[in-house]
Amino acid sequence: MIEQKIIMQSLSEALKRNEEKILALWTERTLDTYVSSDFFKKSQDCFANPVGANIREGLAQLFRLIIAGADSPEFAKPLDMIIRIRAVQQFTPSQAVAPLLDLKAVVRQIFSADKDCRNLLLKLVQFEAEVDRIMLLAFDLYMECRERLYKARIRELKSGSYILTDSGCASALIRENLRELSPKGGCVANKA
Question: 162-183 burial by CB neighbour count: b if 16+ within 10 A, else e?
Fold first, then answer.
């Protein structure tokens, strides 16, 4: 038991010492999953690039909470910053939460390159289990966000408000419908 505490302390110290490198690589790999990844990586302005800013901040908070050994409820805010964004985009559930699992590979890569940390590679089991637990929390959050989106979409369909949000102006819709009714795309009124 005492040996495990010492291992966790040295692991925690190594993670803190390498925090900047780990966060930089983890953020880069996460932002690479976006189509416009170059913009998200380059623009540091939180107003011009809210996706990039939220990802950076959320990952940094998550990492610090993992190192601190925080309880599950404390992960809610940073996970929300990351997952809510990914839930409204064209990511599958596995793609949405995959960057969280990527932290394990990032830490292994950084520790492998640091001779002082190589001896800790075999002792990452508990850290990786914690990352897995957080990934499962993220998956729950993703599913909750998707459920809210579907419920909102159903309300739009039932109320008819989708017509206002999903289509052009009413007169353009009428013209389009008339063209579809006409055999050669001409005006139905002219055929009569």
Answer: eeeeeeeeeeeeeeeeeeeeee
Structural contact between residues 3 and 88, judged by C-beta atoms closer than 8 angstroms: no
Helix boundaries (H) for the chain: 2-17, 19-31, 37-42, 50-68, 76-87, 93-113, 125-159, 162-166, 170-181, 188-191
- 126 within 8 A of 9, measured Cβ to Cβ: no
* Distances, alpha carbon 60 to alpha carbons 53, 56, 78, 139, 158, in Å: 11, 6, 8, 19, 41
Domain ranges of the chain: 2-159, 160-192
pLDDT at site 189: 45
Contact partners, residue 150, CB within 8 Å, separation at least 6: none
pTM here is 0.73
Report in angstroms the alpha-carbon separations of 164 from 2, 29, 80, 170.
Answer: 64, 38, 29, 9
Residue 180 to residue 72: CA distance in whole angstroms = 55
Q: What is the pLDDT of residue 49?
A: 82
